[in-house]
Amino acid sequence: MGKIILTGDRPTGKLHIGHYVGSLKRRVELQNSGEFDEIFIMIADAQALTDNSDNPEKVRQNIIEVALDYLSCGLDPKKCTLFIQSQIPELTELSFYYMNLVTVSRLQRNPTVKSEIAMRNFETSIPVGFFTYPISQAADITAFQATTVPVGEDQEPMIEQTREIVRKFNSVYGEALVEPEILLPNNKACLRLPGTDGKAKMSKSLGNCIYLSDPEDEVKKKVMSMYTDPNHIQVSDPGEVEGNTVFTYLDAFCKDEDFEKYLPDYKNLDELKDHYRRGGLGDVKVKRFLNSILQEELEPIRRRRKEYEANIPYVYQILKEGSDKAEAMAARTLKGVKEAMKINYFDDLEYIEEQARKYKSQE
Ligand code: TRP
Q1: Which GO terms describe its molecular function (predicted)?
Q2: Using N-to-C axis directions, what is the helix angle for 56-73 and 25-33, rounded to 10°?
Q3: What is the CA angle 83-88-92, rounded to 5?
Q4: Which of 65, 66, 144, 218 suits a disulfide with 6, CB 3.0-4.6 Å?
Q5: CB distance 213 to ligand 1 below 6 Å
Q6: Residue with the nearest Cα to atom 8 of ligand 1?
Q7: Per residue in 123-161, pLDDT tens?
Q8: 65 lines ligand 1 (CB under 6 A)
């Protein structure tokens, strides 16, 4: 069996640079590494509906945004399969069988579900679909026989839950499912990029995101108004780099070569940080440097996006072809699952003969 990737995102908004350093950039590298036999990237619209049932139009409108973000980051439909979750009915069927292998108390202990329930004020009015989405996520992963799931660390409990379901299924019914491994981002600063205001998380409602689709001047405006060290008032003041968002972004984006190009007075980020800590280095200079780096990274993404934006029907065609291919794979897995569960009655001639014999002996 080869190496297979499955991962995806909920289409609830445009993707931002946190998604980019946290996952998209890595996906493109994995795609181009040639190490994987198949790469499936899913737009998880059905999962997005589990907590957006009052706003299905938001999910519907963001399918194309996420698809454009994927393609513009360099995911190549010739090398990976981009598809839409709701178009693969086999995923729901698998979920229904997996539901028997998971208890309510186990779901209640899932840290992601727990914190999202708290965040959304769901308490006991939690929709059943939302409560059970870890099971549906296990179906997403196992349907494609994924060996590798590149995701952010917030998804760790989901992968653990999937592994448990796989082990349980295989022990009850026989080895039919592949146990996946999580693949976390390799740079610590990329685990979770804070918002431009210094808040722990980028979120649309806080207005603290830099989007991949933001135009150049918008990115610059956002960078120049970023949160830094509130006690670093005069240029000559010593400053803190820990918890200073501009430096956190530099940790995530900056390479040594960037200094040669944009800030030749320093060799690397450590030197820049030392100067900031000592005092004598102004925020504006550091922000300008970060802006140059971000613009260089985002420029090809913006360019590719423009090309795809000019041909939206082609993007839907990519998604349709991807969904067809994904469904064929999921159908194969489902067939194996039903065989393992021995609920493939009509293909199981021995079973039919056995029933026939049973009745014959009663004659
Ligand atoms: N839960 C993921 C998120 O919120 C999206 C997702 C759905 C996913 N199914 C998946 C990720 C399967 C990895 C594998 O972003």
Answers
A1: ATP binding; tryptophan-tRNA ligase activity
A2: 50
A3: 135
A4: 144
A5: no
A6: 8
A7: 778 899 999 999 999 999 999 999 999 998 889 999 999
A8: no
